[in-house]
Amino acid sequence: MEKNHLLDGTGLTLQLTPDGQSLQAQFTPLVQRRALEVSQLQEALIELGFGELFVPPEALEQLLQKCAVTPLGFTQRIGERRDATLAVQLSDDAMTATMTIQPACGGRTITFEEVEKELSRLGVVCGILYDEIRGALAAGKASRLVIAQGTPPVPGEDSQFISLIPEMAEQVPLLSDDETADYRNLGDIVSVGLGDPVMRRTRPTQGTPGVNLLGVELPATDGVDIPFAENLTGIACDVEDGDLLVAAISGYPVIVPHGVIVDPVFKLKRVDLSTGNLHFKGSLEISGDVSEGMEVAATENITVGGLVEAARLKAGGDIVVQGGVIGHGHAVQGRMVSRQEMAQLEAGGAVTVQFAENAAITAGGDITIGELAMQSDLTSGGSILVGERGGRKGHIIGGLCRAATLVHAVVIGSHAGVPTVIEVGVDPALNRKLEMVQETLAGKQRQMDELTKTIAYVQENPGSMDPGLFNLKQRIYTKYQGEIAELTGEKKRLQKRMEINAQARVEVERDAFLGAQIRIGSSVTQIEEDLTSPTFTLGEDGITY
Description:
Blueprint: E1 12-16, E2 22-27, H1 38-47, H2 57-69, E3 74-80, E4 85-90, E5 96-102, H3 112-122, H4 130-139, E6 142-149, E7 161-163, E8 174-175, E9 181-182, E10 197-201, E11 210-211, E12 217-218, E13 235-237, E14 244-247, E15 252-256, E16 259-263, E17 265-268, E18 278-280, E19 283-286, E20 295-298, E21 302-304, E22 308-309, E23 312-315, E24 319-326, E25 330-332, E26 335-337, E27 343-347, E28 351-357, E29 359-363, E30 367-380, E31 383-386, E32 395-403, E33 406-412, E34 420-424, H5 428-460, H6 467-497, E35 505-512, E36 516-520, E37 523-526, E38 531-532, E39 535-539, E40 542-544
């Protein structure tokens, strides 16, 4: 019989039954018995070494209640030893085994061998999770713990279609050097060029069989070979890789089921701060206006349904503006004043606009203006046509027009005598290239002259310069000699190619006003009086009309 000071004066003693399996409480009535609470009795159980036994709180409550009311002594069973219990369950698909352990209460614990025996009884031969089992046994309890897991079959992967097109970045303004947000530069449109890879198709893969806990193999399905979609436009298969699609044209890529198409034309309503500047591989079709200060570039054509206001357009092909082109600066005899404020159009092909005011237009092909060119700089590798033949509109007022073969207008100049320069007969592109060569040649010649003076001085005054530096200057001198000879040859070749086009002419259907100047090749005629319907050509004695 165990005694404890917590039980002194309570009339209670605790002891195990002879077989050691049950716990009994013996009560002896006392005259001045000290009352107990359940928590104090639980504390006494622990101190007496009975803490591991299964003693339900309600049994203790019943014991104390009985002690409080009975005048007679009694003995009552309040607890017992309980062994741990084990339950292992196998799922219906034999892919998972779970274990539940009810912990021991002073009794025997579950052993590893018992768990193995139970798994064996269920037919589990593989997928056993030994670490999980050992961890649960060490803890002495578990609740539906997975202790064995089968390997499910892995189906093969169907053909996948992987886009190789860079995703469009979120359009946010770029910061300038002074940390100012530039809302015109929000990032480029996603576009592709000829030959760019746009999509890769992967081959299907074989499935991987699985196995359940009973060791039965589970079959897997293989992936499906899915071809590229038919009738994909703007793309082609790579000649060396049938699983790779490449762009057959420049344009805007669009992902479609099992493929991609390339639209050669990207369409939008307008170009302003909401869209930012545009740079596109392909053609652009803008139904509205291009706002002031914006930049639009395309490798193919640009079409604008509205106006172009002091913006810059650059196309590898043609530019068509259904409305007009208006800048805020002006051109004086080919020299730009406040060029940033002018509307600027540059095309590798032709340019067609309704009217141009304070604009700089450069075209590799013809420039066609429906109504008016005012204070603009027009440069064409072909012809400049202002106004329809036989029409009333078609004025060139102020600025400079340069064309390789023909300038045609209804009226040149104005009653106010605004200076207007018309130049034909020489390819403007060649002229610009010649000017660049001449400028570079002049610069090289100046450097050559300086080196010549330096080398001559050192030769006359030995020791005045470090020998290594002197040798370097001599090598540079030799290099400049070769570059000057090459530039001189290029200058002569360009001059020969710039022979005046004998068919070059300036046609004026109605009026050529005082103040206009006509240039054909190196010949110049200043119009001193108003002329009616003249056609200017180059004769033996200069310009005739």
